[in-house]
Amino acid sequence: MKKHFRVPAVLLAATMLAACGSDDGGGGGGGGDGEGLSLDQVRLAIDGDDYMNQLAWMVADEKYWPDLGFTEPAEVFATDEYIAGLAGGDVWVAQGESDVIWSAMAEGSIPLTVIGVEKDAEAYFLGIREGVDPNNLEGLKVSGGAAGDRNITVAEEMLDGLGVDPESMEWVQIEGGSDERLQALLAGQIDVAALQPRHVGPLEESGGQMIVQEYNRVPQEVWVTTEDVMEENHDAVCAYLEGRIAAKQWISAGDDYTDNQDAAIAIAEERGETPAEGDLDEWEIEMTENWSLTGGAPEDSFDEWNDGMIKAGNVPEGFEWRDHADFSCLTQAQENLGLEVEPGNLD
Q1: What's the burial of 3, exposed, middle or buried (CB within 10 Å: 0-12/13-18/19+)?
Q2: 221-226 vs 112-119, strand pairing mode
Q3: Contact yes or no for 39/92 (Cβ under 8 A)
Q4: Is domain 3-120+219-336 annotated with CATH 3.40.1710.10?
Q5: Number of CB atoms found within 10 A of residue 292's CB
Q6: Percent of residues in the chain assigned helix, strand, coil, to nearest 5
Q7: Where are the domains of the chain?
């Protein structure tokens, strides 16, 4: 039975501590007995349990990972403690927001290596609740998340673009992700929020509106592993990436990206994952403006992201992201699948 679940932070922390020193072969340091692979199972931590995240890995696990040599069903954990998961060895690959990963790379207690790109665009979507005048935002309550959240910077940039001084706003910290910010907005607890494309429908239904809807091409969400895994289990990392990217290509097939939509949904439903209302409304946007369908992004977009991380204080001045990235497996997967190779191997 292939399973996925959201692990409470406290429980996961205990799990990861218990996993330290484990030599059962399932985590980052062990070798599996797969068909030529050093690991027999994908053990992945993802920072969110939204439907598209689940759909993507389930298709990979159903259609591609077994043929690439993983002999055991994948274990996937949805948790914001994915860095701890890598440190403890309970997972050997993770997917998360690049601002968090850049900060962790700079902090340096866990030697991390970026191996590919999950999302190659950052949504700049700013919403207002019903009754708010988009031409009179100064002094209103706004949120981009909890303290240190990348979306605070995004919200500031959007306000600047609208000619509104961010310092004139009352900033409200809201724990969780953009779904929680939407709920606070709809409840009238805040007036303005940095949101995501999937929130356009529910926001408009409530009488609000999205006053900024743009995308910035950067590696906003990436796949990451540890230096040890990359060195000792290079073959498994390559198989993981090829399966993930092949699944994205299959899911997004067709001129309108829906040739395999029903079949993909059926795979997820067989595993107990049924789309909720609104989950499929932004299908084409997910394919065209969110996912990196090749698993990569241009090298200069990494430079742009890195500059933003330095400016925001996530990493120190002079931080060199190339010292913490290895795209050898990504390049191999892209070549095997006949896709554009980007960013390519780094010197």
Answers
A1: exposed
A2: antiparallel
A3: yes
A4: no
A5: 21
A6: 40, 20, 40
A7: 3-120+219-336, 122-216
CB 116 within 8 A of CB 239: no
Backbone dihedral region for residue 69 (phi beyond 0: left; psi -120 to 50: alpha; all else: beta): left
Q: b/e string for 141-150 if b means 16 or more Cβ within 10 A?
A: bbbbbeeebb
Helical segments of 89-211, H only: 98-107, 150-161, 178-186, 200-205
Which residues fall within 8 angstroms of residue 51, CB to CB, at 6 or more apart? 268, 273, 275, 276, 279, 280
CATH of domain 122-216: 3.40.190.10
Residue pLDDT tens, the chain, 347 long: 344 444 443 334 333 333 333 333 344 333 334 457 999 999 999 998 889 999 999 999 999 999 999 999 999 999 989 999 999 999 999 999 999 999 999 999 999 999 999 999 999 999 999 999 999 999 999 999 988 788 998 999 999 999 999 999 999 999 988 999 999 999 999 999 999 988 998 999 999 999 999 999 999 999 999 999 999 999 999 999 999 999 999 999 999 999 999 999 999 999 999 998 888 988 998 999 999 999 999 999 999 999 999 988 899 999 999 999 999 999 999 999 999 999 999 97
d(CA 261, CA 177): 26
Give the dihedral sign, CA 261/206/176/220: positive
Helix (H) or strand (E) holding 195: strand 192-195
